[in-house]
Amino acid sequence: MLIEALLVATLLAAGVVAFAPDRYAGKLAAALSLLPLVGSLWLWLDFEGSGNALLDGGEIAYETTIEWMDIGYTLQWHVGLDGVSLPLVVLTTILTTAAIVSAWTPIDERESQFYGLVLLLEFGLLGVFAALDFFLWFVFWEVVLVPMYFLIAIWGGPRRKYAAIKFFVYTNVASLIMFVGFLTLVFAMGDSVTTLGLPEVAQALQAGGAVGSIAGFAPETVKLFAFALMFFGFAVKVPIVPVHTWLPDAHVEAPTPVSVLLAGVLLKMGTYALLRFNFTMLPDVATDYAEIIAAIAVISVIYGAMLALAQQDLKRIVAYSSISSMGYVILGLVAYTTYGIGGATFQMISHGFISGLMFMVVGVIYNETHTRMVGDMSGMADRMPWTVGIFVAAAFGYMGLPLMSGFAAEVFVFLGSFDAPYLSAAPLFTAAAMFGIVIVAGYLLWAMQRTLFGEFDLGTDYEVGRAPLHDVAPLAVLLACVIVLGVNPDLFMGMIQDAIDPIVDSLGGGV
Amino acid sequence: MDPFVNLPDWTALAPMLAFAATALALFLLDSIEPESDSLSLTVLTGAGLVGSLAAVVLSGWFLAEGVSVELFDSAYVVDEMSLFFTALFGSVTALVVLGSHDYIADEPYQAEYYSLVFLAATGMAMVASANSLAAAFVAVELVSLPSYALVAYLKHNRGSVEAGLKYFLVGALSSAIFIYGISLVYGATGVMRFDLIAEAIATDALTGGPGILGLGILMVIGGIAFKTAAVPFHFWAPEAYEGAPAPIAGFLSSASKAAGFVLAFRAFTVAFPLEAVSGTFDWTLAFLILSIVTMTLGNFAAATQEKVKRMLAYSSIGHAGYVLMALAAFSGTGTEGLLAGVSNDSLVLGAGMLHLLVYGFMNTGAFLFVALAEYWGVGRRFEDYNGLWRDAPIASVAMTVFLFSLAGLPVGAGFLSKYVLFMGVIGAGLWWLVVIALINSALSLYYYSRLVKALWIETPETPREIDSYPTGIYAAVVGAAVVTVLLLPGFGIVAEEAIAAVGALL
């Protein structure tokens, strides 16, 4: 019942904070967010799971199954963690606490509501990663949208309302399409599944499919149809080109702490779901169309990086670079090797910390300078050396410098995709994706050179001094996470591989 | 021991009699003390609450005991279906009574208002139990006549009176069509009772030929379309809801609509079973067209409204379209659909009932929130609701729950009821109909979130002065929100009841 305790604590914290006076809300939210944070770290230290939560064999950690209702299909309260979901839970709790602390400076109105919604968001995210029943999972998946909508629409920038509505409608439509895709798959399986539990569906599919025809379509077509609908639904969330257009708007308009969670965790919902649904349940479809998926991934990597290169706004640069980083995740997933999928999962965690860190740094600089435009500032290193130092370190992490988590993640992805057994011309795709790193280094170094170094100059007339300690502290914590994971990837890599191997084995592939 | 063994059959009428007795008791109270003051208003509300909750409790109890009784030469049946809907009507009536307490505090003729509500509720309970076209017609009229008066209750308000008149005129026309349809069916079959009609059709004992019967069925559909505010008999709804007192708008758009649907469910499964009439008149096609047109028109019109109440009115037409999918997806064959062990027909009709139940809470709640705004004189446009959370944070949270639940987000049970319905429709092979419904659903998120945006995100154009907080409306709004949320985890229990009720009917 530990996961339940974690969820209840987060939900209660959200309720308490929402009704607290504004003056205390920020501090109270930070204090209460330590409950899920400490709880998740405890779950991590105490973790004794093995195998993949969806596939046969192995042991799901902290599992609870309670029958919820029976409408022909049994719906359950079924939660549990394996090596894929646990690191994401830890990522969520660390980033939430960091985001709450980083919100103390920029958020100065309706604070109790803001922090209450952030904790509600955390509740939804934890639920998404812990749920093992489709309906339950979908409830959490959609619950995430509600606080996000408010967080962007109330506390965002000048075009916040447009961005919030776009985010809301875009991702909700995607959810509905994905929902239809999954149900199509389950319905086509007829009597071979009696619940909407993800493990049951995955195992029934693995045991020989039993996907029948539906509405006159052949089983193969039904599977492809279901795969495509789910892929589309999740791709919007990830997001990958060409369904990425909601992301820059949402990111630029969202307040910094919300951007941190959006980039750090929300995008991972998409890649996590792709891994759980498309790549675990329907590996044969994924491998049949591996070239197309890999091409989409490589286009996302290159195109996202090119878009970032063209931006003048620091926040937009970071936002577009996420599209590029998520492309690596897709490439790793479609590789179907332990390194590939493991690297993709590790990249989810790594990118969560690094992009969260980058958004936070940009936010801290903005707090002091009130501008994010590359052309408006230069020589920030003079005035805020600590912040700038962390900026540089985070950027190096993004570029994949060794001993940072980004390096480990990308190396694993490339190693995996180079040998991808089901992907023809795998080295070619890998090489093309690796070129993305060059562009990443290009735009980050160029942006840093123009904004951080040289003579101090600021287009606006704000006094720029060192950022307060509570702004810098979360940056330091996240940077520490990036470095620790870079130096010792095995903190997560072991359990990730443990959970990945059954997926690779199910295809008889692997390295 | 079965506690019902020794009770006479007529006691099965108890839930309906609870409504009727309350209506009469309110008349009596009024004649004892016609000059109302605040004390008597409290007494009236209290009596109303007792009456409506008694109906809920009685029907819930009977439902749990599995009561199934036929009365008056089988013209009237009390079965799981009718009890389920009577519980629904009782719940909505309780919310409306509670919400009206403050809303009509300054209006005259309060006792009449409440007793009209209860007369209409009595009619609804009768509709749910009617097993003959004659009984159904009488019951529908008993719902309609008090409703006309209730819509026009705000006598000094031109909008209200106009709305009442319009509602009355359309209603009279629809009644005429309905009863003409009934007479044609009677002419063709020679009987009124649902089961006998089915028998007559099945044995080809038609006296007037199949064409007469088909026309009759089409006209009966017309009468039902009026009650459920389905296209093309929908155009009274926005006007009537706009002009009516807001609690009455909630009452009409959820309870009265549900009454129309229960009649449709019973009439078309018992009296005009598909396998018997399919040669004459394939009514699933009619409902399919009705459903598509109704949901599309309702949702598109709702998206273009400038006034909140009209938006809710059109969205309520859209929801009627969703429930009509249940009849469109009905096959009459009893084949197992996507769900093992449950016939797809039970699933879709059960899902339609569930959606009506959840809708009863979330939609009534939404209209009661509008009642709260009207009580404060906030105004009718979206802009007038700007920043209302500052004055009513808890009610705004409740309203947000209603709106997101109506849009199909899983903050409330509206999500589950909608998707169980979609599952049933996919099970019937009408996946493209679900695609249309999903597009509509996505559109509805746009206009519902527009009101959420006004409540929480926009800043008020002009400062508001709100100093009184009406207990009754608040209690009703919060209560409806709590039930809407609790139905999400508790969905399994009502889902089983609903599917079992349909199973018993078929």
Automatic annotation (TrEMBL), chain A:
An MF annotation (GO) of this entry: NADH dehydrogenase (ubiquinone) activity
Membrane-protein topology: Multi-pass membrane protein
Compartment list: Membrane
Domain spans labelled NADH:quinone oxidoreductase/Mrp antiporter transmembrane: 131-428
Pfam family of the protein (one): Proton_antipo_M
Transmembrane intervals: 6-21, 28-45, 84-107, 114-132, 138-155, 167-189, 225-246, 258-277, 289-311, 317-336, 348-366, 386-415, 422-447, 467-487
GO biological-process terms attached to the record: ATP synthesis coupled electron transport; electron transport coupled proton transport
Domain of life of the native organism: Archaea
UniProt keyword list: Membrane, Transmembrane, Transmembrane helix
GO CC term (a single one): membrane
Keyword Membrane: yes
Family statement drawn from the similarity comment of this UniProt entry: Belongs to the complex I subunit 4 family.
Protein name: NADH dehydrogenase subunit M
Lineage of producing organism: Archaea, Methanobacteriati, Methanobacteriota, Stenosarchaea group, Halobacteria
UniProtKB/TrEMBL annotation, chain B:
Membrane topology field: Multi-pass membrane protein
Annotated keywords: Membrane, Transmembrane, Transmembrane helix
GO biological process: ATP synthesis coupled electron transport
One Pfam family hit: Proton_antipo_M
Location in the cell: Membrane
Boundaries of every NADH:quinone oxidoreductase/Mrp antiporter transmembrane domain copy: 130-444
Main location: membrane
Domain of life: Archaea
Membrane-spanning residues: 12-29, 41-63, 83-101, 113-130, 136-155, 167-192, 212-236, 248-268, 280-300, 312-332, 352-373, 394-413, 419-448, 469-488
Any one Gene Ontology cellular component term annotated for this protein: membrane
InterPro entries assigned: NADH-Q_OxRdtase_suN/2, ND/Mrp_TM
A GO molecular function held by the record: NADH dehydrogenase (ubiquinone) activity
Coiled-coil residues: none
Protein name per the record: NADH dehydrogenase subunit N
Organism: Halapricum desulfuricans
